[in-house]
Write a structure and sequence with these properties.
The protein is mainly alpha-helical. The protein has 10 helices and no strands.
């Protein structure tokens, strides 16, 4: 293995470890933002007994395993989603770094991936993610893309990312004008269009085409799943008051489809 591959492997590993830490922060964002709490303070705490956690109780994945998935004080179960988010974010960062060969643009796409994770989880919980979360994440990513790609003269990447984000923002505005309240969870996920627009805009036509096909297929399958669930519940005499499936991925088909289409497009880029 030559020095280039060794260097890239190290960068990918470092990105994956950084993703674990970012994933831990995203768990805080997902819990606090919908509740109107600050993400900067106080320190992480147990939502049951309100005890602030020590530093060693906040080590990604390791702490959850060491504590056996329970709070040290009140012994309340800690959802397995916490370590899964950390692992998932770490894997996403590693994939992005591989896809962009460890360049500065990798950092921008890691920011977009983290933003997508945060927005998706908020909406999987049945809450509308503020557009500000997607806007801040996309804005930071665009600055990094401008610096990284612009320095190498890849202005097509800068232009594509800006245009993609702008298209996503216009789409969000049009959808909000059509339905300002957006009470149906199946119509959630509008803010993810800004993140996805920036993501696809920098990948080029062929990867975007692969992503578009994936989006259509997954969206259709999600809607089919919702329809099937409703039919079965109706046939058994049950009542679905909110029209929601018990499976979070089906509850928000737009988010689910984009969350799968984005990595597919990146892998298609090669």
């Amino acid at each position: 293995m030559d020095s280039h591959h060794l260097s890239l492997s190290f960068v990918i590993l470092a990105a994956g470890l950084a993703g674990l830490l970012v994933g831990s922060f995203l768990n805080v964002v997902v819990y606090r933002i919908p509740r109107g709490l600050s993400v900067s303070g106080p320190r992480s705490f147990c939502p049951t007994c309100n005890r602030q956690l020590t530093w060693w109780e906040n080590v990604p994945v390791v702490s959850w395993v060491a504590l056996r998935g329970r709070c040290r004080t009140c012994h309340q179960l800690i959802s397995i989603r916490y370590p899964l988010v950390e692992l998932g974010t770490g894997a996403a960062f590693a994939l992005v770094t591989w896809g962009w060969d460890g360049t500065i643009v990798s950092a921008a796409y890691c920011v977009l991936a983290a933003t997508m994770v945060a927005v998706s989880l908020i909406e999987y919980d049945g809450k509308r993610a503020p557009l500000s979360v997607a806007a801040i994440g996309t804005g930071i990513a665009l600055v990094i893309i401008f610096v990284g790609a612009g320095r190498q003269g890849h202005w097509w990447l800068v232009g594509g990312s800006v245009i993609g984000a702008a298209v996503g923002l216009v789409a969000v505005s049009l959808l909000r004008a059509r339905d300002p309240e957006c009470l149906d969870p199946r119509e959630f996920g509008r803010s993810t269009l800004v993140v996805a627009g920036c993501w696809f805009g920098g990948l080029g036509l062929r990867p975007t085409a692969f992503g578009a096909v994936t989006w259509v297929v997954v969206y259709f399958l999600c809607m089919l799943g919702v329809w099937t669930t409703r039919q079965r519940t109706a046939a058994s005499g049950g009542v679905i008051a909110t029209g929601r499936s018990a499976v979070p991925l089906l509850n928000v088909p737009l988010v689910s489809a984009l969350a799968l289409a984005m990595p597919v497009a990146l892998i298609a880029r090669g």
